[in-house]
Amino acid sequence: MTLTQTVTRVAHQVTAAPSAARRLRASAGEALRWRLGMYDDLQLPPFPLSGFTYLGLRARPYEESDAEWRLAFENAPGMELWENGDRPRTTRAEYEELLRWTRRRIERQRGPYLLLLEDVATGASVGDLSIWRVREHYRTAEYAIALAPDARAHGHGLVAGRLAMRWIFGTGEIGRIEITHSVENRVACYATRRLGMAVETIIPDAYSVRTGPGEERRDAGCLHSILRDDFEAGEAERLAARRPSMSPAPAPDPAPTDASR
Ligand SMILES: CC(C)(COP(=O)(O)OP(=O)(O)OC[C@H]1O[C@@H](n2cnc3c(N)ncnc32)[C@H](O)[C@@H]1OP(=O)(O)O)[C@@H](O)C(=O)NCCC(=O)NCCS
Fold this sequence. Notes:
It contains 9 helices and 8 strands. By secondary structure, it is of the alpha+beta class.
C-alpha cells in the first residue's frame, strides 16, 4: 500500500469512527502530557496489587469479575451523595472502559486509585475507596468512600476510613489528608469527624448532587483534614472517642469587618 493510500485509509477510518478518533486524540494528548511532566504532582506511592487489609476489610484493585457488583453499586440509592458529577455506568462495556482506565492509573501511579472494599471473612464486596493526590497541594491526598446500601451503618465506613489513613500516611510520602463531602451529607460529616478529621472549611458550590436524569443540585462542600503527625500521635483515636453530635456542619466564620478588627 502506498503512503497516499495509507493516509486516505486512516483519514477515512477517523471520519467514519469519530469516537475512535477522539480516543486516539485523548491518549496521544495524555502521553504527551506525561512526557512533559504535567502529571508529576498527581503521582501517588504504588498501591500493593494484592491489596491492603485492616480489621477484616481489604482494599484491592478491581477485576473483570467485579463488573456486575460495580454496576449495581453505582446505580444503588444514596450514591448521588458520592458521585460528585460522575454519572452511574449501566453497561458491561462502560465497566470495561473503567477497568482499563483504573488499571492504567494504578500502573502509572497516578490517582485516583479506584479500589474495591471487600470483607475478608466472607469475600463479599462492600464498597469503593478512591484515593488521589490533591493537585498543587504539596504532600496532600484525598480519599472518598461509598458503601453499598446493605453494607452501610455496620461500622465498615469507620474501618475503611482508618484503612485509607493507615495506607496513605504509612507510605511516608503524604503529610496531610483531606475529605470533602456535600454539606447535606450528615452521616459522612459525622463519620469523618469520628475519624478525627476536623471540619476545616466550607467551600461554596463545590459539590454536585444528581437529583434526576441530567439534573443536579449544587451544594457547598464541607472540607475535613488531618495531619500525619496528629494521626500518628494517636490524636485520631482520642478525637474519635469523643463522639461529636450529629449536627450540621458549622457555617464558615464570617469575614472580619472593620468594626471587629
Ligand atoms: C458515609 C458512609 C461511607 C458511612 O459509612 P457507614 O459504614 O454507613 O458508617 P459506620 O457504620 O461506620 O458509622 C459511622 C458512624 O455514623 C453513625 N451512622 C451511620 N449511619 C448513620 C445514619 N444513617 N444515621 C445516624 N448515624 C449513622 C454510626 O452510628 C457511627 O457512629 P458511632 O460509632 O458513634 O455509633 C456510608 O454511609 C455511605 O457509603 N453512604 C453513601 C455514600 C456516601 O455518602 N459517601 C460519602 C460521600 S464522599
